[in-house]
Design a protein that fits this description.
There is one protein chain. This protein is α/β, with parallel strands linked by helices. The protein has 2 domains: about 70 residues; about 220 residues, Glycosidases (TIM Barrel, Alpha-Beta Barrel), CATH 3.20.20.80. The protein has 5 helices and 15 strands. The strands form 3 sheets. Strands 8-9-10-11-12-13-14-15 form an 8-stranded mixed β-barrel. Strand 14 and strand 15 form a beta hairpin. Helix 3 runs parallel beside helix 4. The longest helix is centred in the C-terminal third of the chain and has 19 residues. The radius of gyration is 25 Å and the shape is elongated.
């Protein structure tokens, strides 16, 4: 179980003492808030000593100065979609809306990759990107970043200047973050207060310019994130974006075999199947299934 020290200082001992006043067993102290994995010591010879716990390194602590933390809630397996591909990876995505992710709970639930929002349009970096990225890396998660695209002509007055400006802004942020294990993602969707004003032809041209600028800067083709209805409505039917990995958002479908891709794609690589998962101390969390492991950067 995971334990936390609740007193200002707690002695760290090399054995359970015969008496609490026995100082010969003390080898150091730990401070309030210190956490460790411990197991209860059984068959204490003197019950008046109370409970004792042993950590993974073989050191002992008095239970009166400890509190057991609740186990992180596992995402129930029965809530996962059915017919998932063999060897799939479970992942999450976070942004500034996830102010304090419970990384331990994510790992306990089996999450192995995470996508982190880094920016939106030009001049709107995600303020939590660096902290999220450093924590994700520290916890051994395969990490990638996503940029919320705002395809229009506000930057420079043309499709080309705007798309290049957005791509360059995203790359500048990428260069300040830990090395990713996953490609950059173009988040293509609308908001309640905004949608692209571009025609289908211009929308496609903007995306293609953005992608080429990202490839030129990073050497890695990006992933496209969206929902089927949106891309079918916004793109020409004869587009050629299907050569890029697709991250598909679809929450109402619970069977992987029933997922339908937008026109132009034969298959999906990542599926965002939930936007309201509750795992441990996390608020509502987006969860994803990665079935195409070639997404991972070699």
């Amino acid at each position: 179980m995971q334990l936390i020290v609740t007193v200002k200082k707690l002695n760290k001992r090399n054995r359970v003492p015969a008496k609490l006043t026995d100082k010969s067993s003390i080898i150091g102290t730990v401070l309030q808030g210190f956490k460790f994995e411990g197991t209860e010591v059984k068959n204490i010879s003197d019950p008046s000593l109370g409970k004792w716990y042993k950590d993974r390194d073989g050191y002992f602590y008095w239970g009166g100065g400890l509190m057991a933390l609740p186990e992180p809630a596992m995402f129930p397996l029965e809530d996962l979609p059915i017919n998932l591909p063999e060897n799939y990876l479970l992942g999450a995505d976070v942004s500034h809306y996830n102010s304090r992710p419970d990384w331990d709970a994510m790992i306990h639930a089996g999450i192995s990759f995470v996508y982190i929002k880094i920016s939106e349009g030009v001049g709107t970096p995600d303020q939590k990107a660096k902290a999220h990225a450093e924590n994700a890396h520290a916890n051994g998660l395969k990490t990638g970043y996503y940029h919320f695209c705002r395809p229009d002509t506000r930057n420079g007055g043309t499709l080309q200047t705007d798309a290049i400006a957005e791509a360059n802004a995203a790359v500048i942020i990428l260069q300040q973050l830990p090395e990713p294990a996953l490609p950059l993602v173009l988040d293509l969707e609308d908001q309640s207060s905004w949608d692209t004003p571009l025609s289908k032809k211009d929308y496609l041209a903007w995306i293609e310019i953005f992608i080429q600028q990202i490839i030129q800067s990073t050497g890695v083709p990006p992933v496209i994130y969206s929902r089927k209805e949106y891309l079918d409505r916004k793109l020409p039917k004869d587009h050629t974006l299907g050569k890029y990995h697709l991250w598909l958002a679809a929450y109402s479908i619970r069977d992987a075999n029933k997922l339908k891709c937008p026109v132009g794609w034969q298959d999906w690589s990542i599926w965002q199947f939930s936007e309201k998962a509750h795992i441990g101390g996390n608020a509502m969390l987006d969860l994803n299934i990665m079935k195409d492991l070639t997404v991972i950067i070699p």
